[in-house]
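Protocol step 6 of 9: fold each sequence in the batch and record its C-alpha cells directly after the sequence line. For illustration, a two-sequence batch is reproduced in full.

Sequence one:
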Amino acid sequence: MAISTFSISEAVAALKQGEVICYPTETFYAVGCNALDPLAVESVYKVKKRSDSMPLPVLIGSMEQLPLVTEVTSEIVQALANRFWPGSLSILVTASDRISPVLTGETGRVAVRVTPHPVAQQLCLEAGVPLVSTSANLSGRPAVIAASEIDPELLENVAGVVNLEPAPAGGLPSTLIEIVGPRAVSIVRNGAVSGIELRTSGLAVVPRVAGA
C-alpha cells in the first residue's frame, strides 16, 4: 500500500491534533504521539495491539523538556544525562502529573531519553512535547529500520509516516535502567549502552530485584 508521507511541519501539526504517526529514531522506526495527550496514547496501544498494562517509553528533544515528563530531579539523573544524552539510554523516572497513568501502565513511572536522531529530536522540539516512542510494529512482530517495512495493518491506523534521512541504524534498542541508590542503577533491559559503560561513568550497576 502507498505510504502517506509527512514533512516535519505536517507531522507536528498531526501531533498537535492528537494523531498517531510513525517516525525514525536512532535505532528503529517508531510509532507515537504527543505523550501528554491521553486519548492519543490510548490510540497507540490500539494501533500496536499492545496490552495497556505495558508502559510506553517517551522521547524528548532536549534536557529542557525533561520537566514535562518528570517533576522529580536528582543528581544521578543529571549525571546520566550529561554522560549519555542525547543517546540510547532510557531512564525510569517518576512520571509528572501531566503524564497519563495509561502511558505508565499505572506504575507511576516512565522511561525517557533525549533522542540523538535529528528528525525525532526536531519533532519533539517543534511540537513542544515529549513523544511516545515504541517500535513501529504490531506487538510481537519485529521492529523495522525502513518505512517501506512497516506493517500495512499498522499503517492503516496512523495518520502518516515521516520518511526522512537518516534511516534508523538498527542494532540494539536503548538500554533501560532504573535508579536504585545515590550512585547505583539496575539494568531493566539490556541494549545499546553496556553495563561496562555505565560503570566507567562512576556508577554501581547492581542486579535487579526479582519482580521489581
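Sequence two, same batch, same settings:
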Amino acid sequence: MKPRGLRNNNPLNIRHNADLFQGEIKGNDKLFKTFSSMPYGYRAAFVILATYLSKGYNTIEKIISRWAPPSENNTQAYILTVVKYSGVAADEVLTATSGDKYILIVSAMSFVENGVNAYINQIRAGFALQDKITTQ
C-alpha cells in the first residue's frame, strides 16, 4: 500500500487546520489534509515554509524542530536525514530567494515522511504554483 502522504497527495503530511490551501479537497483522512494532486500538496508545503521563514524559521534545524517537534518525532534523526539528502547544512540560513535549496529540502522531507524518493518534477510543479519563495 502507498504511504499515507502519497495516498492523500499530501507528501509532507500536513495536518488538518484552519488554513485552506489551493488544491485542497475533502478527503477521508481524519488527521491529514488531502489535495487534488501532488503538486498542490507540495505547493502547500512551500507556502507553509514561507510562513515559517517570515517567523524566523530559516534553517533546516529550526524548520524541522517546528515541523516535527520532539514531542511527536525523533526530530534529530529527521534533521540529519534532511541534511544528508538535501545537501544543505543544518544551520545554513535560508532566504526568500533560496528556492533551489527549498526544493531539495522539501524533497528530503517528503522522503522522511513517506519512506520513498519523491518525484522532483512534482516538487518543481508545486514550487511553480506559489510565489512566496523564489530562486535567485
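Proceed to step 7 once all outputs are recorded. Observation for sequence two: The chain is about 50% helix and 5% strand.
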